[in-house]
Amino acid sequence: MSKTTNACRPATRWRRLAFKCAIFVLALGVAFPLLAGQGPAHEAAAASSFNFNWAPAPAAPLAWTPGQVNDWDLVENIDGPTDNNGSMEAGHGADCSAPPATHHVVSLADSAFICKSHMMTAVYGGGDAYATYGAIYFAPAQLADWSQGPATVSWKVSTQRLSTRDWWQVN
């Protein structure tokens, strides 16, 4: 045998020994809980559902503000130091009549509202707006729990786009 072959043998032996030790430790980590009669620890999640009651059918657009607990998260933003988002005509009439009827909106407080038992959002960054950009983010303040099996997340959304900057997405 050459000296090169003999020099490589100790390194190979150490690698094999390290590999066998790693397998042994892994096997022990799996075996001990099973031998003790304990499976993997799972915290039981309480069965729950989360739903928003869109039932109000007001006679006029009803400005909506999230509740303090267990409600939806609503973030309205414009790129300026004011709550005026530019005056615009928002969907639904002043009596909540269906589009194409509209009503006048001038502030972020008016930009999320309920008409005809559904949520509407409207923000404008043009015309007399202080800023040129605005966005409204609306999401349930809950997480879907798949720890006990399948979970369902569903919603209804309008796909109407009134500008090239209108879109919705799921993150």
Automatic annotation (TrEMBL):
Does Signal show up as a keyword for this record?
yes
Indicate whether Signal appears among the record's keywords: yes
Q: Recite the UniProt keywords alphabetically.
A: Signal
The name on file for this protein is Uncharacterized protein
Q: What is the annotated signal peptide range for this record?
A: 1-36
